[in-house]
Structures are given as structure tokens and as C-alpha cells.
Specification:
There is one protein chain. By secondary structure, this protein is α/β, with parallel strands linked by helices. It has 2 domains: 149 residues, Rossmann fold (3-Layer(aba) Sandwich); 247 residues, P-loop containing nucleotide triphosphate hydrolases (Rossmann fold), CATH 3.40.50.300. Helices cover 39% and strands 18% of the residues. It has 18 helices and 15 strands. Strands 10-11-9-12-8-13-14-15 form an 8-stranded mixed beta sheet, sandwiched between helices. The relative contact order is 0.13. The N terminus is likely disordered.
């Protein structure tokens, strides 16, 4: 429950000069990771506290939006918009009325969204009821900046909690099939379409193209991270990331041959774990090679997407990779397949139906051969949606973004909530 204001709490003048905002003790609060937070307030003082909190340096990596209207406004808003990592709602309701109101919110929210309630009644029984139903925390107004940041930090930074981020790994069945291009465009789509913070890690240290495709030239990147594992933490990772867009950060490959890049099996494990704890989505561009460390990365990923073109060598390689990953990941969902560069003029191809028959898998996307569009985007350092927002190709990347983040399934699940929301709905 909310910490009571301490004797050394500092008071900040409100934005309108009529109320007082408490800072509280901010000295021991850890920085909040790259998450999206949306808050719905009922009172000006809570809204102003949230606004001031969002401008604190510890919140620099979070994307915060503060709206008025409380739970009813949140219900209306999420009826047509995806939910963020954290929803903060203020309500003066108590007991069954508050639970019923949260139940209506549950019907329009994704089940993995965390919820913090700011109430106006210091009731231990209400607190226990909300926590038992899955609410992450219940704070009693007036809240301080320290209350808010401590709660957010406890939810998303606590080392005892599960990693925040989802790892999505892309690899080609063969060199030159366009896996990196698809990887970069899907990362872009996730960040722009869902306003979700995304870290894109280019693991092809010798020949990576993410920096070219995103028109970046960062002085540091993933090489500095992998060779500094003993001092790697979220602060160092933050310094190594290049900001590509409002919600997209790049851990770039050096793309040089100054040294050989031979790594042990777990060389990238620590980097990915730290990235997971600082961002809700980590997209990994894995080079087309089979080594101990690439196998380890693919095995640990939450989603794996293999890109292939419709010829015999790709069919053989895709079959081998899919079979091996099924063996390494027996309790995970099937690896996804993308067929790319389909329909090259005058090139003999295996038909889509014949290609997927021995694989026993339906392709998540079949992307046609469009050399002019892809070539123009690549030469200009653009994503496909930037080169031609009206191209049908863009819809393939948007669908893959929905698929790998769970948004495609979550649209259905909104009518049948899970976890916290399911329990509240049944109330």
C-alpha cells in the first residue's frame, strides 16, 4: 500500500499553484525501464503529481501519458486502443462498486497489462481484496512522487520478478533471404504501431545491416556490450543504445572486420537479460550460422521467426532448423516461418504449398518479390513504410508485429479476459 509521507518529504508547488505536490524520499529509487504508462486521474492534484513524476530523470526511459476521467475514461479509451504495460487509475469508489468498475476495464484490456489503483480510502480490507484479485498495488491519495516511482520500480525492476521483455529472434534459413530486412521492419512496426518501447539488437557483428537500414552510425553498440559483460548493467546498456525513433532503440553491430567474432555459448545471455528488464520488446537479428551461441539465443527466445525463399536449399535448411528447434524447445509454440521473395520473374521456384508440405507448418507471411521497393528503402536508409506507406508489403510487417507480440490473439482475448482481469470480471 502507499507509503505514508515521511518527515523529510519535500513539497513542490503544483502546476496551477493551488495545491502541493509531495516528492517524498527519491534517493534510493532505481530508474524505471522502457515501458509505456497511461494514467487516468479524477483529481487535479493526482494528475499533476503524475505529470511531475513523468519528468523526473528516473522516468526518462518510460513513455507516460496522463489523462483525466478515471476508470470510465480508461474504459472508453481502450475500447479502440491497445493497452500499455501499466495502467494507473484513480477512483473515489470503494468496495463492490470499485471492483465492478475495474471489471468493466478488464473487458477492454489486454490480460498482461499491470494495473495500479489510486484510491481515497485507507482500507486494509479493500487493499487485500484488490491485491488478491491481481491488482499490482493500491495507493492512497494524496500520493507522492516517491510513492509512484517506488510502486512502478517494484513491479518492473524488482529482480525477483520475471523479466519484463519478450525476446523475438529472426534468422534466415540461408544467406540473402532477407531475414534482417524483415526483422528490422517488424521491430519498426511494433514500435510505431503499438507505441511500445523496442530494443533491436543486431548480432551479426561482422556484416550487420541494421545501422544502414535505420540510417544510423552509432560509435558504440553490441560489440562494446559483449566485451564488457563483467560490468554490464542497465545503465551501461542505455549508453550503448542508439535512438532510432520515439520508441525504437538500436544496439548496433560494428560491421567491421577488425577482429574475429568467436563467442562462447552464453556470451549474449547477460545482455539479453538486462535488455529484457529494461524494455518490453527485444528484437534480435541473428546471423545465418549455426554456432553454440546462436543456438543458445534461439533456444532462449520467446518467439523465433525463420525466413526462407522458395528453393530446394532453403527447404532443406528450414526443415533442419525447424526440427532442431522443436527438439530444443519442446514446451514452446512452433517456430514461425516467413516465405520471402516469392515470384521472382523467370526463376524456377517451389510452390508455396509444396514448400510447406514437408515442413508441416503454415507460413505466417508470404512476401512477394518487390526489388524496386526494397532496394529504394535500403539505399535510402528507410523502412518499407517510410519508402511507401501505401504498399501492400507494409501490411505483412504489421501482421507479423501483431503476431509475435500477441496482439493478434489478444484482440479475441479481450472478450474473454485472463489472469487479473478474468478474476475481476467474474466479480
Amino acid at each position: 500500500m502507499s507509503n505514508q509521507l515521511q518527515s523529510n518529504a519535500q513539497i513542490e508547488p503544483s502546476l496551477d499553484g493551488n495545491a502541493e505536490i509531495s516528492k517524498g524520499n527519491l534517493s534510493n529509487i532505481r530508474p524505471v525501464p522502457r515501458i509505456t504508462i497511461q494514467a487516468f486521474s479524477e483529481t487535479e492534484i493526482v494528475a499533476q503529481t503524475l505529470e511531475l513524476t513523468s519528468k523526473d530523470r528516473r522516468m526518462a526511459r518510460a513513455h507516460v501519458k496522463v489523462l483525466m476521467g478515471g476508470i470510465p475514461a480508461a474504459v472508453d479509451f481502450y475500447g479502440s486502443a491497445p493497452t500499455p504495460n501499466l495502467v494507473i487509475v484513480e477512483s473515489k469508489l470503494v468496495g463492490d462498486e470499485l471492483l465492478a468498475s475495474l471489471g468493466r476495464l478488464a473487458e477492454v484490456c489486454d490480460p498482461d497489462t499491470k494495473v495500479v489503483v489510486i484510491g481515497h480510502v485507507n482500507d486494509i480490507f479493500l487493499y487485500r481484496e484488490l491485491i488478491s484479485n491481481g491488482v499490482s498495488d493500491y495507493l492512497v491519495a494524496p500520493v507522492s512522487m516517491a510513492d509512484l516511482m517506488t510502486t512502478i520500480s517494484d513491479i518492473f525492476v524488482n529482480p525477483d520478478n520475471e523479466p519484463l521483455g519478450k525476446i523475438i529472434a529472426f534468422m534466415g534459413a540461408k544467406g540473402g533471404v532477407g531475414s534482417s530486412t524483415i526483422c528490422h521492419n517488424v521491430a519498426w512496426s511494433i514500435s510505431s504501431k503499438y507505441k511500445s518501447e523496442v530494443v533491436l539488437a543486431d548480432m551479426d557483428l561482422a556484416f550487420g545491416t541494421a545501422n544502414i537500414n535505420l540510417d544510423q552510425d552509432p560509435p558504440q553498440g553490441i560489440a562494446d556490450a559483449v566485451y564488457s559483460t563483467e560490468r554490464m548493467d542497465d545503465m551501461l546498456l542505455d549508453r550503448l543504445l542508439a535512438k532510432c525513433a520515439e520508441h525504437l532503440s538500436l544496439l548496433a553491430a560494428p560491421s567491421t572486420l577488425d577482429r574475429t567474432y568467436d563467442f562462447h555459448k552464453d556470451a549474449f545471455s547477460g545482455i539479453l537479460e538486462i535488455a529484457q528488464r529494461s524494455s518490453p520488446v527485444v528484437v534480435v537479428d541473428v546471423p545465418q550460422q549455426w554456432t553454440a551461441w546462436t543456438q543458445s539465443v534461439l533456444t532462449a527466445a520467446d518467439e523465433v521467426i525463420i525466413t526462407a525463399t522458395p528453393d530446394l536449399a532453403n527447404l532443406r535448411n528450414a526443415k533442419n532448423i525447424l526440427d532442431k528447434l522443436a527438439e530444443l524447445r519442446p514446451n514452446d509454440q512452433n517456430t514461425r516461418l516467413v516465405l520471402n521473395q516469392v515470384g521472382v520473374p523467370k526463376k524456377p521456384e517451389i510452390s508455396v504449398s509444396d514448400f510447406i508440405a514437408p515442413l508441416e507448418i503454415e507460413p505466417s507471411a508470404v512476401i512477394p518479390f518487390e526489388p524496386t521497393l526494397f532496394g529504394t528503402a535500403s539505399n535510402n536508409g528507410q523502412m518499407i513504410s517510410e519508402a511507401d506507406a501505401n504498399s501492400p508489403i507494409v501490411s505483412h510487417f504489421d501482421f507479423l508485429a501483431r503476431l509475435v507480440t500477441g496482439k493478434a490473439e489478444l484482440k479475441v482475448e479481450k472478450k474473454s479476459p485472463l489472469g487479473f482481469f478474468s478474476r475481476l470480471s467474474r466479480k
